[in-house]
UniProtKB/TrEMBL annotation:
Swiss-Prot/TrEMBL keywords: Hydrolase, Membrane, Transmembrane, Transmembrane helix
Domain MurNAc-LAA, residue spans: 111-224
TM ranges: 12-31
GO biological process, one term: peptidoglycan catabolic process
InterPro entries noted in UniProt: MurNAc-LAA_cat, N-acetylmuramoyl_amidase_3
Protein name according to UniProt: MurNAc-LAA domain-containing protein
Annotated organism of origin: Faecalitalea cylindroides
CDD domains xrefs: MurNAc-LAA
GO MF term list: N-acetylmuramoyl-L-alanine amidase activity
């Protein structure tokens, strides 16, 4: 009787071990149980303004901070859908900001956040404004010594042009238009103005979900294409 019990327990242990091994090889536990996912790049997406800072006010009374948040979140989702191996982090994912309610600390906070995340790329989404309500179009602001962001900005333009989203107001360098966050990061960094919130037609167009999705997809494709190309060498 004792022999049978020992034989039973040994058999049970062997069975358990075999089940565990099978589960591991079948992917039940998953690779990430034993090793943290290795991303090929981290992109920090920064919805401009937020919280106390509404940004520019649209022709219809809408706030820049709300539109930048919506477009930024859509861009991040599109990028993650395109490439799960790209880590997407937002400086804010709602109308709350984690830094003090003054402009200087606000800008410093975004730089600190990007550095803490070990970001490889930084993208800040904004909307433009002008006393001239006829002004419209998109443009990017980068450092003059940032060829990666220049390539990505040109790719965004090509993607938008193909989708008939016009027009490109040109690439601007921070030498002539200083931007604290872009200038104080050592990684490829861009501030992208998606359009003029003070233009009646463009303001209305930018609030349409379909147009926000289009812009987000064009931006996400540009970043994904560049990042993948650098990995392939």
């Amino acid at each position: 009787m004792k022999y049978r019990k020992n034989k039973f327990y040994k058999g049970k242990i062997i069975l358990i071990v075999l089940v565990i091994v099978a589960m591991i090889f079948s992917g039940y536990f998953g690779y990430n149980l034993f090793r943290e996912h290795q991303y090929i790049a981290t992109v920090v997406i920064d919805p401009g303004h937020g919280g106390y800072d509404v940004g520019s006010i649209g022709y219809d009374g809408s706030y820049e901070k709300d539109l930048t948040l919506s477009i930024a979140l859509r861009t991040g989702r599109k990028l993650k859908e395109l490439n799960p191996d790209i880590n997407v982090v937002y400086t804010r994912s709602n109308d709350t900001v984690d830094w003090a309610d003054n402009e200087e600390d606000d800008l410093i906070g975004r730089v600190i956040f990007a550095n803490e995340q070990n970001a490889d790329y930084f993208l800040s989404i904004h909307l433009n404004a002008s006393e001239n309500t006829a002004a419209y179009g998109y443009n990017a602001f980068i450092r003059s010594n940032d060829p990666a962001s220049e390539t990505i900005a040109n790719s965004i333009d090509n993607n938008l042009t193909e989708e008939n989203w016009l027009y490109n107001r040109g690439l601007e360098y921070t030498n002539s238009y200083p931007l604290y966050v872009v200038d104080n990061l050592d990684i490829p960094s861009m501030l992208f103005e998606v359009g003029f919130i003070t233009n009646p037609q463009e303001c209305a167009d930018l609030q349409k979900t379909s147009n926000q999705e289009l812009i987000a997809e064009c931006i996400a494709n540009a970043y994904n294409d560049y990042i993948v190309s650098t990995i392939k060498g």
